[in-house]
Amino acid sequence: MKSKKLLAMGFAFVLAVTSLVGCGGNAESSAEETKELSMEDVLSQDPTGEKIVVATNNAANGRDVWLLGQAEAAGFNIEIVQLGGGDVTARVISEVNNPTTNVVWGPSEDQFNSMIEAGALVKFTPEWAEEVAEVSTENGYSWPYEIQPKLLVCNPDVYTEETAPKSYKDLWENEEFHGKYAVPTSFDGNTNRAIIGGILGQYLDEEGDLGVSDEGWDAIKAYFENGYKTPKGEDDFGNMASGKVPVTFTFASGLKGKCESFGVDPIIVYTEEGEPTNTNQIGVVANKNQEVVEESMRFANWLGSADVIGSYAKENGNMVANKAAEDQMAPVIKEVKENYKAQDVDWAYINSMMDEWVAKIQLEIY
User: Could you report the per-residue pLDDT of 242-267, keeping only the tens digit for each?
Assistant: First the structure.
């Protein structure tokens, strides 16, 4: 199995200051300082208490308090920097020669790929690598802890399984849904961009405008024109729960908390085209300070372990990537994991084009 080979490589991997630096090509200047240490040696050591700065988009709704408490109890000394996934990525890349963060937790695999290409991360293989092998891209730098499908949900007092939309196309093609579904009102978050990508990704055309056919641009235009743009002061999930706008979308890890907050058990639509899906991952930022990097690896290894990420999922409603932690998922998320299917489109291309697509939507459509 490829994952076993990679895991073996990880434990045989030799850490050195030259490889840990990874910042702006400075490795050559540190060649004389090389210190060999195996990954197994690093991860087997107890936390040292070295301060670790964790950049994450997972700090809202009390998750920062949970993480700080759990980390302290485990012997780690962490500071949390809360940013959106895109902002985390941009910061880590911009600081590649002078990093102020040490662990990145939460951005999507494509955002991690951008950090890897910038040389901002170090290679790292956690002890639980094989447990996430089924959903891992195995790039050697970042590892999934969470699967994040974007879900279409409906008010159960307004719709039944039979009358609810069966696909995103139903929303703009069937008048009965016009004005009754929420659409993205901003374009910086991963969820909103995934909804757009999931629609336009069905109409890819090399000869089309920005790689999308005319039919695709007509579809996204109709999607926005016939949807409800949730104004400030309103909540799209709250509107769904009350029946005001009975169809909306959400990310899987937010479903449990939102259902509890608004007292609703929505119909989850498993669409014909499948759900826009990404994995959220964890990685270690390159740093000239070897002790910091090693402690960062220990922290990332601890956080993604079955016991810890399972406890996190039980508390917060996440869909774990670690198969050894699946039993700890909330019941509603277990249901989703059993029933959803990831939308099969070219996400690498979609994400590479997203900024241009968003600009066109903002200028010409929205």
Answer: 999 999 999 999 999 999 999 999 99
151: buried, middle or exposed (CB in 10 Å: 19+, 13-18, 0-12)?
buried
Q: Return the CATH number at 158.
A: 3.40.190.10
Indicate whether 129 and 202 sit together in one domain: no
Indicate if 300 and 169 belong to the same structural domain: no
- Do 179 and 227 fall into the same domain? yes
Q: What is the rounded CA–CA span in Å between residue 190 and residue 172?
A: 22
**Domain range spanning residue 172?**
149-277+336-365
Q: How far apart, in whole angstroms, are the C-alpha atoms of residue 352 and residue 331? A: 35
Q: Tens of pLDDT along 216-239?
A: 999 999 999 999 999 999 999 999
Question: Is 318 in contact with 329 (CB distance < 8 Å)?
Answer: yes
For 253, residues 6+ apart whose C-beta sits below 8 A from its C-beta are: 146, 148, 316, 317, 318, 319
Predicted TM-score (pTM) of the model is 0.84
Q: Are residues 112 and 223 in the same domain?
A: no
Residues 223 and 345 grouped into a single domain = yes
Q: Are residues 229 and 283 in the same domain?
A: no
Q: Are residues 42 and 109 in the same domain?
A: yes
CB atoms within 10 A of CB 335: 13
3-state SS, 134-194, equals HHCCCCCCEEEEEEEEEEEEECCCCCCCCCCCCCHHHHHHCHHHCCCEEECCCCCCHHHHH
* Strand 228-229 to 142-154 pairing: unpaired
Give the count of beta carbons closer than 10 Å to the beta carbon of residue 257: 19
User: What is the DSSP pairing of strand 51-56 with strand 14-15?
Assistant: unpaired
pLDDT at 59 over 90: no
Report how far residue 227's alpha carbon sits from residue 152's, in angstroms, rounded to the nearest whole number. Answer: 14
